[in-house]
C-alpha cells in the first residue's frame, strides 16, 4: 500500500509545490497526440465495447439495473448500470469505513494517486464517454473530462495531504514547567474522518466538477457514494470502476467508493443528502437544487458549486478584432453550457474607443456576432467548438429567449450535425432596464449585450449581478489602467474572479487547476472553492489523546 | 501600522512554531507574581473604579444604557453600558468594513497582536472582572480570563496568519506552453473578508471562549460585533474598549469592533445571527441555542462550542488515592461549571483492581467523595477551588438533582462564603439503566458514579454518550495497556479527546492553547475546534484577477 505512495511520491511533491505557487503547472498532458498511437485506438474500442450492454461493475445491486443515457449526438447508449438501494449503499459504505479510515494517510493517498494515474491512461475512453453523454466536442471532452479533471483531482489530494500532514503525528511531548517540577504528558493527535461522503455530480462536467470532492473525501478517510446525473452516468461509472479495482488490489474494501445510479422518476439525491449516515455533501448543479441542499441539509458540511450570471464589461480595447474573437469563442465553446460561460455583456450606450476608432454600441454587438459567424463558418470547426446540447430543455430555452431582446445574432443548428441536438449562440441586445431578461440565468448559448450608461455603470451592474445572483467568472476589457485598478477591488468584493483584456488562446471560461481558484464561495454561485484549504480541512477532525509521559 | 506588526513579529513567529509542533508553549505567564508588584494593585484599583458607574465606551449608543450584572459573590456591580441598536451596529460595522478589509494582513495582525499584548497588561483588571461576573475564584479568573484566553487569541491569529500568507501575494506568473508559443498571464490573488462577524459569548468563560472567534474574524478582515451574555458583560466590555483604542491609534475606524449589550428581556442574538449583513456567527453556550443557530442560520458559516456529557471510565489504577484526588479536583474546580467538567463516572459494578487491592464500586464512589471532602476541608481552599455559582438556576438544579440517585456526597455551600452563591459537588450513585438521570446534561457541580457491567461496557457507554449527546472531554483510568489501546480508537471515533491516567497537577478539564484541540467538531458538543485550520480558513475567500502579462 505504501508501495503506491512511493510510486507516486514525486507526482504528489510536484503538486504540493504547485499549490503553494499557483502559477502554471499541470500533471497530465492536455494534448492527445502526446499519448501515442495506441491509447486513442484502445480508448475508442473500449468505449464501443461498452455500448448496448450491461455495464460491468462489481458492486452489489439489490435494485435491478437502470440507465437511459442518450447521446446528444443522436443514438441511445444502450448501457444499463446496477442500481443499489439507499439502505444497501449506506450499509456497505459504513462497513467499509473503518478499514479505510484507519489506513495511513500515505496508504490512502497512494490509492488515490494510483486511481488518478489509471484515469489518465483511460483518458481516451473517458473522452468518448464524456462526449457521448454531455455533448462536449471530442477535443474538449478529452481535456475537461480527462487530464484537466485529473489535475483537479490531484490538486484536491495535494491540499488534503498538506492539511493532514500539518497535524503532528506520533508522540508529541508536552512538558509544562510547574514551579520546580515539570508536568510531562505525551499527546497523540488522531485524524478522524467525518463519515460517508455523498458527491452529487452534474450533467455537463461530470468528472471535472466531482473529482475534487471524491478525492478529497477519499484521502481524508471518508467512504464516498457517487451520485451521477441520470443522463450522464458513464463517465463516473468508469471512474468508480477504476477506483474499486485499485482499492481491491490494495487490499481495501471496494465499497469505499460506490456508484448510486438513479432515474429521473425515482431520484435519490435528496434522500441520501439528509440521511443521518451521510456526513459530507458535495454538489455541482443548479442553484435551485443547491439552495434546497443548503436549506435542508443540517449539521454537516455542504459544499456547492451552483450557477450564476457571468458578465463581461467592455470599456475600451486596443484590439477590437481580437477582443471580439475572444468573446465569440467564449460564447460558442460547448454552446455556452459551461458554468463559466459569460451571459451578460455590458457596453456603454455611447459606444467605446478602440484601436479601430470609435465603435458604437451596435457596432460592438455586431462585431461580436460577426466574430461568432466567422468562428463557426466552417461546419467542422463549428462542430468542434460547439459540440451538442446536453439537455433538450436548453434548446427550448434558446427558442424562447429570442423574444427577450433584439436579436443581434440568431441561434441556428450546427450545419452538418443532423441527428445531433445543436445550437450556435443567440445574441440579444437589451437595455439596462430589461433586468427581468438578462438578470435571470439563461443556461445555454444565450447572451445579452446590455446597453449601459457608461463603463462605471457597467461595472456597477456587473458586480451587483454577481453579488445578487452569483458569478463564477467575469471579464473586463479596458485600456484605462485607473479604471481597471478601481474595478479590481469591486469585483473582489463581489467575489467574482476577474479576467482582464483576454485575447488570443486564453478564455474567460477556462479555469486552470493548481492556479485558478474555481468558484470563490463569496457570492451565491456556490459556497465552496476548487480547491482551497477550507475545502479539505472540514473533511476530517482531530482528536487528541494525552497521557502521562513514560518516566 | 506595520510598526505594530514589527513590534510583535517575534511573538507571532513563536506562535506559528507552536501551532506546528503543538507541544507545550505559552506566550503569557499564568503565574500572577511574575507580573510584578504594581500591576496587581493597579488592576484592582481599575476594577473598583468601574463599579457603580456608567462604563466609558466610545461607541455610539442610540438605545440608552443597560446593565444588571450582579456578582455571584453578592453585590451588584452597578455598571451600565451603552446599548447600540441592531441597525446602528450593522450600519457602523458596514461603514468600518472596507478600510479594515483592505488593510494589509500585517497591519491587521499588528493591531490584533497589540490588542492581545494590552489585554495581557490588563490581566489583573480582567481577573477581577471575570471573578465578579462568572463566579470563578480569583486564581482561575486570572488564568482563564487573562493569559490563557490571550494564548487562545494568539493561537487564532497564528492560524489565520499562516492560512492567509499561504496564498501567494503579488504578481504570480502563469506561463502556459501552447505549441511553439507561451500564453502568459499575470495573476493576483485577493483575500476577501466574508463580512461582519457576530460573536455570541457565554457566561462562564467570556474571554477564553470568545477570543479565538473575535481575533480570527478581525485578522481575516471582518468587522466584529461582540454580544456578551447579559449577566457577564464587563470582561468583554473591557476587551472591546482596549481593541477600539488600539484600532483608533492605528488609524482605523474603531467600529471594526463593537459591543452589543442586551438584556434578558430584550435579547438580540437571534435577530443579529439571521441578519443578512452578518456573514459569520460564532457561539459558545448551550446546545439548545446552538441547535437553534445551526437550524436557523442559513448561508453563512456558524461555529459552535456547545455542551455535552463528559465522562470518566475507571477500569483500574496504580494509584487509587492520586486518582481520587485528581477526579475530586476536576469535579470541584469552579463548582463543575466548566464545559470540560466530567459528569458521568463509569465504574464496573464488581469494583476495580488498584495498588491498594480490590476496591468495590461503593469504595470507588466513596473514595472520590472523601477526596472531595479532603480537598474542600479548608474553607479558604474550598473558596479558591469552587468559586461561586454563576447562575441561580444552577443552584436549583443541584437541589433537584439529589433525587436522581443515591447521594454519595451531598452538595453544601462553601463555608465562610456567606452572601455568595456557592455549592460544592453533589455526587450520586446510579445504575447503568438510569440513563434518564445521567445521560441528560446536568450543568453544575453534579456528577454520577454509574454502575456498569465491566470496563468494556463502561467504555461503550461513555463513547456512546459522547456520540449521542456530545462530549468535550473524556478520561480513562486503567493499568491495562491493551484496554487503553483499544479504547483510544473508540474515543477517537466518538470525537472525544481522551485523557488517560491523569494524576497530580494536570486535570481532564484543562485545555491548553497551542496543544489541545478544544472541541473536536466530531460529536454534538460543537461543530468547531479551537483552533484548527478549518476554524480560520472559512473566514475569508480568495478572488483571482488575471490579465495578460506585460510584454
Written overview of the protein:
- Two copies of one chain form a homodimer.
- With 551 residues, chain A is of the alpha/beta class.
- Chain A folds into two domains: 2-306 and 528-546, Aldehyde Dehydrogenase, Chain A, domain 1, CATH 3.40.605.10; 310-500, Aldehyde Dehydrogenase, Chain A, domain 2, CATH 3.40.309.10.
- Chain A is built from 20 helices and 20 strands.
- Chain A has helices at residues 2-7, 9-21, 38-50, 86-102, 105-121, 123-134, 138-145, 147-165, 211-219, 234-249, 269-274, 287-296, 320-332, 361-375, 379-386, 392-401, 435-438, 455-469, 481-493, 533-537, and strands at residues 65-66, 81-82, 172-178, 181-193, 196-200, 224-227, 257-259, 278-284, 302-305, 310-314, 316-317, 342-348, 352-354, 357-359, 406-409, 426-431, 446-452, 474-477, 498-500, 540-548.
- In chain A, strands 15-16-17-12-10-18-19 form a seven-stranded mixed beta sheet, sandwiched between helices. A five-stranded parallel beta sheet of chain A has the order 7-6-5-8-9, sandwiched between helices.
- In chain A, α9 (211-219) links the parallel β5 and β6 (224-227).
- In chain A, α6 packs across α7, α7 (138-145) packs parallel to α8 and α8 (147-165) runs parallel beside α9 (211-219).
- The longest helix of chain A has 19 residues, at 147-165.
- The relative contact order of chain A is 0.13.
- Chains A and B meet through β3, β4, α19, β19 and α20 of A and β3, β4, α19, β19 and α20 of B.
Amino acid at each position: 500500500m505504501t508501495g503506491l505512495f512511493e510510486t507516486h511520491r514525486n507526482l504528489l511533491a510536484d503538486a504540493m509545490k504547485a499549490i503553494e505557487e499557483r502559477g502554471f503547472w499541470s500533471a497530465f498532458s492536455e494534448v492527445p497526440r502526446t499519448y501515442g498511437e495506441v491509447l486513442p485506438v484502445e480508448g475508442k474500442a473500449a468505449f464501443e465495447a461498452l455500448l448496448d450492454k450491461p455495464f460491468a461493475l462489481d458492486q452489489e445491486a439489490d435494485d435491478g439495473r437502470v440507465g437511459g443515457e442518450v447521446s446528444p449526438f443522436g443514438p441511445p447508449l444502450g448501457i444499463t448500470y446496477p442500481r443499489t438501494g439507499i439502505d444497501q449503499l449506506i450499509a456497505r459504505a459504513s462497513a467499509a469505513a473503518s478499514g479505510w479510515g484507519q489506513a495511513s494517510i500515505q496508504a490512502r493517498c497512494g490509492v488515490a494517486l494510483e486511481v488518478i494515474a489509471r484515469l489518465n491512461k483511460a483518458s481516451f475512453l473517458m473522452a468518448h464517454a464524456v462526449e457521448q453523454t454531455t455533448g462536449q466536442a471530442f477535443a474538449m471532452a478529452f481535456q475537461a473530462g480527462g487530464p484537466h479533471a485529473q489535475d483537479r483531482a490531484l490538486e484536491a489530494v495535494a491540499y488534503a495531504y498538506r492539511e493532514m500532514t500539518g497535524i503532528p503525528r506520533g508522540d508529541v511531548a508536552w512538558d509544562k514547567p510547574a514551579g520546580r517540577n515539570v508536568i510531562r504528558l505525551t499527546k497523540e493527535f488522531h485524524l478522524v474522518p467525518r463519515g460517508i461522503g455523498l458527491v452529487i455530480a452534474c450533467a455537463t462536467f461530470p468528472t471535472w466538477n466531482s473529482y475534487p470532492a471524491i478525492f478529497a473525501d477519499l484521502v481524508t478517510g471518508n467512504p464516498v457514494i457517487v451520485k451521477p446525473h441520470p443522463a450522464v452516468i458513464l463517465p463516473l461509472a468508469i471512474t468508480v470502476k477504476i477506483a474499486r479495482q485499485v482499492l481491491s488490489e490494495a487490499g481495501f474494501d471496494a465499497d469505499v467508493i460506490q456508484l448510486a445510479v438513479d432515474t429521473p422518476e425515482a431520484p435519490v439525491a435528496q434522500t441520501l443528502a439528509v440521511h443521518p449516515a451521510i456526513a459530507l455533501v458535495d454538489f455541482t448543479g443548479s442553484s435551485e437544487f443547491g439552495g434546497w441542499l443548503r436549506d435542508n441539509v443540517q449539521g454537516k458540511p455542504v459544499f456547492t458549486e451552483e450557477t450564476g450570471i457571468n458578465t463581461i464589461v467592455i470599456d475600451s480595447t486596443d484590439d477590437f478584432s481580437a477582443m471580439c474573437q475572444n468573446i465569440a469563442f467564449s460564447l460558442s465553446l460547448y454552446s455556452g453550457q459551461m458554468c463559466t460561460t459569460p451571459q451578460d455583456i455590458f457596453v456603454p450606450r455611447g459606444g467605446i474607443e478602440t484601436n479601430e476608432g470609435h465603435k458604437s454600441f451596435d457596432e460592438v454587438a455586431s462585431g461580436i456576432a460577426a466574430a461568432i459567424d466567422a468562428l463557426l463558418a466552417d461546419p467542422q470547426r463549428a462542430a468542434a467548438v460547439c459540440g451538442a446540447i446536453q439537455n433538450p430543455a436548453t434548446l427550448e430555452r434558446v427558442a424562447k429567449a429570442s423574444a427577450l431582446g433584439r436579436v443581434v445574432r440568431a441561434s441556428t443548428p450546427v450545419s452538418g450535425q443532423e441527428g445531433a441536438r445543436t445550437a450556435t449562440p443567440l445574441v440579444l441586445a437589451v437595455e439596462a432596464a430589461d433586468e427581468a431578461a438578462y438578470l435571470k440565468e439563461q443556461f445555454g448559448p444565450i447572451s445579452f449585450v446590455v446597453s449601459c450608461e457608461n463603463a462605471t455603470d457597467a461595472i456597477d451592474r456587473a458586480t451587483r449581478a454577481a453579488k445578487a445572483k452569483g458569478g463564477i467568472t467575469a471579464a473586463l476589457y479596458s485600456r484605462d489602467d485607473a479604471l481597471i485598478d478601481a474595478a479590481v477591488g469591486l469585483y473582489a468584493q463581489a467575489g467574482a474572479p476577474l479576467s482582464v483584456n483576454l485575447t488570443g488562446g486564453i478564455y474567460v471560461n477556462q479555469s486552470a487547476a493548481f492556479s485558478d481558484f474555481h468558484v470563490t464561495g463569496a457570492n451565491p454561485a456556490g459556497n465552496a472553492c476548487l480547491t482551497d484549504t477550507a475545502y479539505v480541512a472540514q473533511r476530517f477532525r482531530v482528536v487528541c489523546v494525552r497521557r502521562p509521559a513514560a518516566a
